[in-house]
Amino acid sequence: MKITQKNFGAKIITKLFSDDEILLIQQYATSVASEKKLIQENDHLSHLKWWSTRFDLEFAKKKIDDYLGLDDSGMKLLYFLAPGVKLPVHRDYSGASASNRIRFHVPIVTNDDVKFIVDGDIIKMSVGELWMLDTSYLHSVENNSDIERIHIVYEVDINQKIRTYIPANFKHRLHIVYFWILSFIKLIKSLTITLALNPKIAFVRLKVVWRFVLWKFGVGHIQKNNKNKSI
Ligand SMILES: [Fe+2]
């Protein structure tokens, strides 16, 4: 496996925080650590010691928000990964550029024994750096160190500024098509199983999917406008 910083799923944006600023953020992380809650509370990964807390440190938030041109929306948290924890290889729909969303990471406490793998490459994220992560690419993390890894993690809509960081080449576009085909197959499989086990839940999920399709292709917006016109 090669070590690289050229990867379509993970991209360094800039070294955003100085050592002094990182020290302040580390102190903040210590002060809110008692509030941390499991990230995967209700699924097969709920046994993992992987937590999040709020991230309300004004100067640090403002610095990230200003750099990326963000507003108050989106998810802005601190993530804690206990020593020895391994997050298996997976894709996420919520932070995928295909869904017009994206994640950002800023390592606050980490070391060389934390192995972050994206799209087959080991990605070395250092303290204070701002990284973009497209979760439609396969990714996994292993904390092989004896310290708790702490990252600031954002998940936000892709705005004009962020769009400039997203690869615009054929390989990435092909990946997006592949991602949607994979998602569609997974959805059909899950709906078929749910339909057999519990038709009511399957119907609710179908409604959610339908609303998403309307939102994605702007049909809901068109219907709303037409409705307003007819009044
Ligand atoms: Fe993930």
Give the overall average pLDDT: 88
Could you give a short account of the major beta sheet?
7 strands, antiparallel
CATH class of the largest domain: Mainly Beta
SS content category: alpha+beta
Detail the poorly predicted runs. 1-5, 222-231
Share of residues in strands = 25-35%
Second CATH tier, the architecture of the largest domain: Sandwich
Number of domains: 2
Q: How large, in whole angstroms, is the Cα Rg?
A: 19 Å
The count of strands amounts to 11
**Could you say what the CATH topology of the largest domain is called?**
Jelly Rolls
Classified in CATH, the superfamily of the largest domain is: q2cbj1_9rhob like domain
Q: Tell me, briefly, the overall form.
A: globular
Bound molecule types: fe (ii) ion
Biggest sheet strand order reads 1-9-6-11-4-3-2
Fraction of residues in helix? 25-40%
What do you see in this structure?
The protein is α+β, with helices and mostly antiparallel strands and 231 residues long. It has 2 domains: 3-163, Jelly Rolls (Sandwich); 170-230. 38% of the residues lie in helices and 26% in strands. The protein has 6 helices and 11 strands. The strands form 2 sheets. The protein has a 7-stranded antiparallel beta sheet. Strands 5-10-7-8 form a 4-stranded antiparallel beta sheet, with no helix packed on it. Strand 7 and strand 8 (121-123) form a beta hairpin. Helix 4 (170-197) packs antiparallel against helix 5. The termini are far apart. The model is unreliable at 1-5 and 222-231 (pLDDT under 50). It binds fe (ii) ion (FE2).
